[in-house]
Amino acid sequence: MSAYRINRLLFDLQMKPGLWDEFQASPGVVADRYHLDADEARAVIEVDATALSRLGVQPYLLRFYTVRRGMSNEELIRQIELA
Amino acid sequence: MAEIVAAVACSHAPGLATRPQLDAAGTKQRFYDGLKEAGRRLAATRPTALLIVSNEHIQNFFFNNWPTFCLAFPEEMEGPIETWMPMPRYHLRGYPEFGQYLLEAALAAHFDLSSSQELEPDHAVMLPLHHMQYGTDLPMAILLQNCVQPPLPTLARCVELGRFLAKAIAAWPRPDRFALVGVGGISHWIGVKNMGAVNEAWDRWFIDEICQGHVDALARITPEELNRDAGNGGEEIRNWLTVAAAVGDHPGEPISYEAVTDWVVGCGCVFWDLTKAPREAASPGTAATRQ
């Protein structure tokens, strides 16, 4: 299963004006628009770095997203170790 | 007619901006000082233009159209693209005439580069320039090499590209004095298992080897070895290899190496002074990496 759609969402969350706020307000709506399946949507919305790693999310996009969501390096490292 | 007068290769860890709190051991301060020293040595060679060799981190470009090599030569640029990064913003002058020439020369030499005429340089370009306190007012073009999304160009190809850059600069008809700035590395693991590790022994070995000009031997490092020893972040050594290959037969001067674990990056900085003859450039006391 390609991680293109999740990667695309994470890229757009960085670069597309307004999307971050829209995602905070209506995460399910945005996840649907990016055609994420239930597992992918949950992993992104819950900032589950273990699941995102397993789903093959691009490591740099993963790192950016978790930083933006306030996750420490230590926590990210811990969650990736579990993947 | 133009020449390369100097080169720098240095790390660009985001922590330079996001985690500036100094450690008691002085690790970070020494690296900040090292970048400033690189800037001083660069300034002393009086460049008139910069050619930066860097890599994108998936901000200007995405995988709908992802270049292996992209030569960016806008008329002007503003960076960093990470507007959230706690560092000053810079307005940069491009060098579109040189970029256009370089692209034509590349295609003629069978290097099929992509190109860009609009770019907001990221932390990788901006942090070294900012901390060297030099270069942000010089006209510049930026060569971007894919170092983050496999499959990647081979190390050997990046060396070949570096050698091409030297020839192309020599044939550029304006009397420019180019400084090359290669950024990234050294060992680091980002968003993958082993994140947080720094391979100091490997990094110091790499700096020694590149200062001695062993670019072809370094280019024979296998993908498995590089990933194992330097991490996915270590793929950025391509930018160091390209610059070192362009510099050719001049010894590198290691300025700084610090294993900055708080930044999760092994941070190095090397300088080449091409205004000196090779045998004058090597002197005792520049081997800062020897323990």
Task: Describe this protein's structure.
The complex is a heterodimer of chains A (83) and B (291). Chain A has one domain. In chain A, 71% of the residues lie in helices and 0% in strands. Chain A has helices spanning 4-15, 19-25, 27-33, 38-45, 49-54, 59-68, 73-81. In chain A, helix 1 packs across helix 6 and helix 2 crosses helix 3. Chain B is α/β, with parallel strands linked by helices. Mean pLDDT of chain B is 95; it is low at 285-291. In chain B, the strands form two sheets. An eight-stranded mixed beta sheet of chain B has the order 6-3-7-2-8-1-10-9, with helices on both faces. A two-stranded antiparallel ribbon of chain B has the order 4-5. At the A-B interface, helix 1, helix 6 and helix 7 of A face loops of B.
At CATH level 2, the architecture of chain B is: 3-Layer(aba) Sandwich
How is the quaternary structure best described?
heterodimer
Alpha-beta classification of chain B:
alpha/beta
Distance between the termini of chain A: 16 Å
Notable traits:
heterodimer; A: 83 residues; mainly alpha; B: alpha/beta; two-stranded antiparallel ribbon; globular
List the helices and strands and how they pair.
The complex is a heterodimer of chains A (83) and B (291).
Chain A: H1 4-15, H2 19-25, H3 27-33, H4 38-45, H5 49-54, H6 59-68, H7 73-81
Helix pairs in contact in A: 1-6, 2-3
Chain B: E1 3-10, H1 15-18, H2 27-44, E2 49-54, E3 69-72, E4 76-79, E5 90-93, H3 96-108, E6 114-116, H4 123-132, E7 140-145, H5 155-171, E8 177-183, H6 200-211, H7 215-219, H8 223-230, H9 237-247, E9 253-260, E10 265-273, H10 278-281
Parallel strand pairs in B: 1-8, 2-7, 2-8, 3-6
Antiparallel strand pairs in B: 1-10, 3-7, 4-5, 9-10
Helix pairs in contact in B: 2-4, 5-9
